[in-house]
Design brief:
This protein is α+β, with helices and mostly antiparallel strands. It folds into three domains: 66 residues, Elongation Factor Tu (Ef-tu), domain 3, CATH 2.40.30; 151 residues, Threonyl-tRNA Synthetase, Chain A, domain 2 (2-Layer Sandwich); 104 residues, Diaminopimelate Epimerase, Chain A, domain 1. The chain contains seven helices and 19 strands. The strands form four sheets. The protein has a seven-stranded antiparallel sheet with strand order 1-7-4-5-6-3-2. A hairpin with a 2-residue loop joins strand 2 and strand 3. Helix 4 packs across helix 5. The longest helix is centred in the last third of the chain and has 35 residues. The protein is elongated, with a radius of gyration of 33 Å. The model has no long low-confidence stretch (mean pLDDT 94). Keywords: Coiled coil, Ligase, Metal-binding, Zinc. One of its GO terms (molecular function) is metal ion binding. Its cofactor is Zn(2+). This is Threonine/alanine tRNA ligase second additional domain protein. One of its GO terms (biological process) is tRNA aminoacylation.
Length: 369
């Protein structure tokens, strides 16, 4: 575990201890697998990519894209380690901050550099509180506060829930926070570099606060910068005009949507008028499948006896049974099994689908009415 006491201890030479089902353990390791709310490391072993890390009790198993043999040289990806570690240490500082307020962090999310958040067990946290937290972190990260790692025998540690542990590692940041933790941490709070609160939202447990920490901010900033540049190109607008242009597009879209709805109503009315002039009770391919339901509903109020519409697309036959007499379900029940159909509806309209040949469907439906 002592490898985890140095943020930049990212490589080591070691030997294979065991191998089972493609997973290796080693005499020592600098890798950290997902545990304790912290994502796992990335990196290579003998130049092969590490594709999985898993813990069994306190033993870390490593899987690489290939086969390993001694001697072993490990290299942990620096960017991933720093991103994962700095947010972990930052949230320890916040544990101490909230603890002094009588609050506590109930959950954290650090699944990726673009998704870093913590939740506090209070819904009464406003913008003033967020600014106070930001000020606390700004001041703390300017200080020279070294991290202390202290090891105890589990049986000697004051908290009895750790009695069965061989060893308990306590991570301490000055007088701000001290707690048992087995994950990697920074060696000084000033290694965290930066901490920014992005926003918050209320949850069932309290308040979720979104943050970006250290090198994760670099990734997020570059992503948003590229997004803004792409929007500028698409909208042919200056950066300050992007929001206005998007709002204009939204308003224009609403107008077009309304116009399309009116055109669809006109098209439906035209189709219904056309169908009413047809004497057959079973009509084939007179409407597109996308119009089948809408036209059927419009027809219901204009026909006096049962009509059936069938439309085909890619060897699938969709059909609608329109029955002002309320017999649609009965008709469908009579042919459902034979056609291996799937569908449903009301006594007056049933829509369904079958992959049986079109002619077979036509004949069965004609017989049913």
């Amino acid at each position: 575990m002592n490898h985890y006491d140095n943020l930049l201890n990212l490589s080591c030479d070691t030997t294979i201890k065991t191998e089972k089902d493609g997973y290796y353990t080693f005499a020592e390791t600098v890798f950290y697998g997902e545990k304790g709310g912290m994502p796992g490391d990335k990196g290579t072993i003998n130049g092969l990519e590490v594709i999985d890390l898993k813990w069994e009790d306190d033993v870390l198993y490593h899987k690489v894209d290939g086969t390993l043999q001694n001697p072993i040289h490990m290299e942990v990806d620096k960017e991933t380690r720093i991103i994962n570690t700095t947010v972990q240490s930052a949230y320890h500082l916040l544990d101490g901050y909230y603890g002094k307020m009588g609050l506590y962090i109930v959950a954290i999310g650090v699944t990726s550099p673009e998704n870093q958040w913590y939740e506090v067990n209070s819904k009464d946290l406003d913008e003033k509180h967020l600014q106070e937290v930001q000020d606390f972190m700004n001041d703390t990260l300017l200080q020279d506060i070294p991290t202390e790692f202290t090891y105890y025998k589990g049986s000697e540690y004051p908290n009895p829930k750790y009695a069965n542990h061989d060893e308990v590692r306590v991570v301490t940041f000055g007088d701000i926070d001290s707690q048992p933790c087995g994950t990697p941490h920074v060696n000084n709070v000033n290694q965290i570099g930066s901490f920014i609160i992005l926003g918050s939202e209320k949850t069932s447990r309290g308040t979720r606060i979104y943050t970006t920490v250290s090198w994760a901010t670099n990734i997020k900033l570059k992503k948003y910068y590229n997004l803004i540049q792409e929007l500028r190109k698409i909208l042919n607008a200056k950066e300050d005009d992007i929001l206005e242009n998007i709002q204009t597009l939204r308003n224009t879209n609403k107008i077009y949507k309304k116009q399309i709805e009116e055109l669809q109503k006109e098209l439906t009315a035209y189709k219904v008028k056309d169908i009413l002039q047809m004497k057959a009770n079973v009509l084939v391919d007179v409407v597109d499948v996308s119009q089948l339901r809408t036209v059927s509903q419009a027809l219901l109020n204009q026909v006096s006896s049962t009509k059936i519409l069938i439309t085909s697309s890619d060897d699938i036959n969709d059909f609608s049974i329109i029955s002002p007499e309320g017999k649609a379900r009965d008709i469908y029940a009579a042919i459902e099994e034979s056609l291996e159909a799937s569908g449903g509806g009301s006594p007056k309209i049933v829509t369904a689908r079958s992959s049986k040949p079109k002619q077979e469907i036509i004949e069965l439906l004609q017989k049913s009415i």
